[in-house]
Amino acid sequence: MFLGLDLGTSGLRALLVSDAGVPIASESEGYDVSHPRAGWSEQDPAHWVKALDAAVARLRALHPGEMAAVRGIGVSGHMHGAVLLDAQGAVIRPCILWNDTRSHAEARGLDAAPGVRDLSGNIVFPGFTAPKLLWVAKHEPEAFARVAKVLLPATFLNHHLTGDFFADMSDSAGTSWLDTGARGWSDDLLAAGGMRADQMPRLVEGSEVGGTLRPALASAWGMSSQVIVVGGAGDNAAAACGVGAMRDGQGFVSLGTSGVLLTGRDGYAPLPASAVHTFCHAVPGQWYQMGVILAATDSLNWLSRVTGTRPADLARELGAQISGPQSLRFLPYLSGERTPHNDSKIRGAFLNLGVEHDRKAMTQAVMEGVSFALRDCAEAIGQTGAQLGGLLAIGGGAASDFWVETIATVLGLPLDLPEAGDFGAALGAARLAMVGAGEGTVDQVMTRPAVARTIAPRAELVAAYQDAYEAYRASYPAIKTLG
User: Fold this and answer.
1) Whole-angstrom Cα distance, residue 21 to residue 26?
2) CA 292, chain centre distance (Å)
3) pLDDT higher than 90, residue 422
4) Per-residue model confidence as pLDDT tens digits over 305-325
5) In this structure, which CATH number among 3.40.50.2300, 3.40.50.300, 3.40.50.720, 3.30.420.40 belongs to the domain 2-231?
6) What H or E segment, with its residue span, contains residue 222?
7) Is 235 noted as a catalytic residue in this protein?
8) Is 223 assigned to a binding site?
């Protein structure tokens, strides 16, 4: 048996997987995000440990035999967070999360520093880790002076599990301290961010053994003291492992809180100016590229709160098939935007709103706006030379055929819907543990799920959606001048 842990923004999931790669059982435990000021987003890492203990305790109570048979653990985590530890290993301050925008000025300065984009392969976004530490150095100097280690959220769990400090490269690529092509910490990037190599964890591949489970935890969880813990992965790389998106031509569209268009890459082909993320994959010799929008289902959730109607009910009002775009336009920049704009200050809008528009029209506009934003991501990824194809549609928003058909038509690409089952970041983390334990090769373990059905673009509507997309693209520079 293998255990995959997915440390999400709103909760932790623990998934038991058999040595055949079949999910057996899972348990989840939630926690809150703190927003002490506008644009700030923090969590206490102690809440992650409490959630882990609760989820694993339930798994052990319900499946003691399977838990006793666990041979390996992999951790997936939300990326870019900054967990600061002092010399005694104590947490100095709450973790600054991926969606925290306080360090926008520091990110802008670091991004302009000579060689930073070239070495890291990416724009320095405000959500990345390095600018967060520059912010702490400026605004909380006493805390900064105590920093002995900086850990990403998944790395913090690795440390809790093993007592060792090790991080995988897919997660570390989102710090702006990693030479993403060479797959190693860069002394030049660390110096640009005011950090030292000794403050960084040891680097391993996501499928490489980083340590073994601490005896106290092994005893409490009813496991062997020989359980391995692999490097693990950042959440999107882990999700890619869960659906077999490892190489060129293998990818997915994820409609979660944020929206992601991701493709595996067989080589390193960064293009920072496009605002495409170019990161190490969680397995040796592979990379991946993705465009990220900050509010996908979060846009629908916002409309749900405003209208007092559940997201599923909003989606249900639209039916299953599209009939063409409407004039009402939604710009999904509720929390700023990453790809392709790298703009933390821009905010969303409805355009062309009239008295004839109702809740249903607003829901359609939200889904179309998110779809157009994903087209922006596809255009940016295409500039790197990647060929998009073989895309799966995953995430909560993929339950809406209307939304998936809109995206397929806007992208001009068919989207495969996987058979109902358990896959994603927790499964990807467990698969990394399987490879680390010698259960199979990457190609044998990181397989694609069976496809239930494919939603094709509506050929007769492609031109109309192309025109609507062009109007959408023209909206960003126009509203930016109004802020």
Assistant:
1) 14
2) 8
3) no
4) 999 999 999 999 999 999 999
5) 3.30.420.40
6) none
7) yes
8) no
Rounded to 5 degrees, what angle do the CA atoms 207, 212, 218 make? 125
Burial of 479 (0-12, 13-18, 19+ CB in 10 A): middle
Q: Closest Cα partner for 125 from 366, 295, 293?
A: 293
Confidence band of 143 (pLDDT split at 50, 70, 90): very high
CATH 3.30.420.40 fits 244-418+450-483, yes or no: yes
Query: Which residue among 100, 179, 235, 401 is the active-site one?
Result: 235
Lookup: tokens for 194: 């005011």
401-411 and 462-480 helices, crossing angle to 10° = 90
pLDDT reading at 483 higher than 90:
no
Element (H, E) at 338: none
pLDDT at 32 over 80: yes
Diameter of the chain measured on Cα atoms: 66
Phi, psi of 290 (to 5 degrees): -150, 145
Amino acid identity, position 409: T
SS3 378: helix
Say if residue 79 carries a ligand binding annotation.
yes
SS3 28: strand
Q: Which of 269-273, 401-405, 421-425 is least confident?
A: 421-425
